[in-house]
């Protein structure tokens, strides 16, 4: 027989302190495994001066984001009868956007799934591929937020060195021959974050061959690929030809992080699982944002490349300005490789007597903020801590020169 | 000593068939637990006629979504210097949007976290609260997609009846006194999906009291709350006053599902975990969409209520039209409660001789599609299978009358 609410009240009121054993509330293991930011992304490490110049993030410059063109595309999209851009759509993404990306990438449209930006693609790939507790091979040094994403699967990591030629595929092969059996490998093949390097075509093919032989999935994180401003593009064909690679792309660095729009190029065998995961989260990416970007890139077929060319020219200039300014502000202090694309410089301190941690603090005191190299190792055996990650994306030439001058003063003042 | 790529090639080529035990690729348990849609949402069940009238989803009518106002807001937002709407923002959401929602809901802005729509809020709540394998109390009948979302936590379910007065809180109390210890309870307090009912204030208070006493978290899913078109709003204050309730809100039914924008009202104790989860997925909701909606609702302070009033008037008319048309097309066939809000009618077939499954098939053949009641039970003891869930959101009065006429013909043709 059902109790009435009055009965329950009586029950509780009669003995409000009666002992009931409540549910033993503990944090679910999933969230308990998610650590607070340490190092990279830890705001508590920073106390920037009010006039600080920040070379911190891979942030595209507002001047090369097509704001007015996006506004115009929005007006066109929202004037369509029945406003389909305001309605539900499919987990896979809008067909016209998937088709445009597929044509650009040279893959079948069915393999494109739209995401809320690059990191979202990584997160879906990890959840679709990595069993809890699995071993995952990762870049060393590595984009630190990927390691934080891996906490979703409580994965163990196997660091693989990244050098001037990108991931050390031969070293990975040694590890595999030695018995390591990762379920996935994470790398940034183009304009590595933080190490600047690009993985050559032969190594891409070899990496795929190893993945197929040893049964792991390559998660190729490629946010900067379209921002090559010198040298020749290295093909992604080896990745697209294999069902052992998930390539993660995004409009973040080209049209703006605030859109939260990206995609994955997915082997068919993962498609249903990623869609199933998506349908347990937010269902699909904003129909409106997808429709705006689809209208932007298809409404004027040359526009996206014009946006890219403008951005590439800007970042090439800024990379050159920053590299030159560093050399003149602190002659001989750094080994500097000229980047061929992307948004980061990864100079190496030459003088072993300089403590890079102290330098970062002193640089902050002179008004320049950057990511210390020590935030990036995924294991031992890298000299990442001797490097600085300097972003030149969203500061103009004058500010980059001023930042270099401040850094130069901090270096000059280091004890040695 | 590092191998070169040539060495690896030689190695593989020399013995291409050599036995290596690859990683034993299996689907991660997380994704293996995600079932394909069955019943609700299973497109394979449907073979609609080309001229079918679909009363399937809780879809807002395009005529009451503020498309042109959103376009104007976008133009204003994207003309701001530096285009902040195209840049990264914080996991919590844009301050101006959080503040506006907080003021409207009467809670502190810190408790508002922006999501990609209501379902995303449910997904985050489940992951933050429910340990794998936990017991979760749920509405019976229930919004079926919530059960699919629960698969993320492989939870067991405890069905609690929902009647004309919403969730049967007294029955829940019995289960708890009997020893059931759910970690969470899921319910739709306003304009229940599918059962139309509204949970009275006293039951809301009692539910919260039980949650606090027995240590579970109420996940209150409230997408339809703003669409009340008759009767008095029931307060959400009991939910907001407790740290044992996560209330899930959304702009989906008011400004458009395609935005993918919603929020959760979160007790402080869950805040860091939800932010940590978010930072492992897509980081934050689209800055652009947030900025557009913030501009829409704050740029013209009366606009949102005007949008709501237009929508409420439309849905009130449509609910009335559909209820009346059903009664005249099939006199006496249904018990019909007039809804006070939301987008669904949940009529009950009176004649026990009518097989509702066969009726749904015959209705489809006459050109009307709806969700059969049998898709909604979360356990035994409900007569949901005798009901039909009819959405009146996105069909005009003429089409609703035609749909009712077709359904009437299907009913008339049933054997009895």
The count of helical stretches of chain A stands at 14
Assembly state of the chains shown:
homodimer
Number of strands of chain A: 14
Which CATH class of the largest domain in chain A is shown?
Alpha Beta
How far apart lie the N and C ends of chain A? Answer: 84 Å
By CATH, the topology of the largest domain in chain A is Aspartate Aminotransferase, domain 2
Classify the secondary structure makeup of chain A into a structural class.
alpha/beta
Percent range for β-strand residues of chain A: 5-15%
Summarize the structure.
With 416 residues, chain A is of the alpha/beta class.
Would you write up a description of this structure?
Two copies of one chain form a homodimer. Chain A is α/β, with parallel strands linked by helices and 416 residues long. Chain A has two domains: 43-59 and 305-412, Aspartate Aminotransferase, domain 1, CATH 3.90.1150; 82-300, 3-Layer(aba) Sandwich (Aspartate Aminotransferase, domain 2). Chain A has 14 helices and 14 strands. Chain A has helices at 5-14, 29-32, 67-78, 95-105, 118-129, 144-150, 169-177, 201-214, 237-240, 268-279, 287-299, 303-329, 356-366, 397-412, and strands at 53-55, 112-115, 135-140, 156-163, 166-167, 184-187, 217-221, 245-250, 262-265, 334-335, 344-345, 348-349, 368-372, 388-391. In chain A, the strands form three sheets. Chain A has an eight-stranded mixed sheet, sandwiched between helices. In chain A, strands 1-13-14-11 form a four-stranded mixed sheet. In chain A, α6 links the parallel β3 (135-140) and β4. In chain A, α3 (67-78) packs across α11, α5 crosses α10 (268-279) and α13 packs across α14. The longest helix of chain A is centred in the last third of the chain and has 27 residues, at 303-329. Chain A is globular and about 65 Å long. Chain A starts with a helix and ends with a helix. The model of chain A has no long low-confidence stretch (mean pLDDT 94). Chains A and B meet through α1, α2, α3, α5 and α7 of A and α1, α2, α3, α5 and α7 of B.
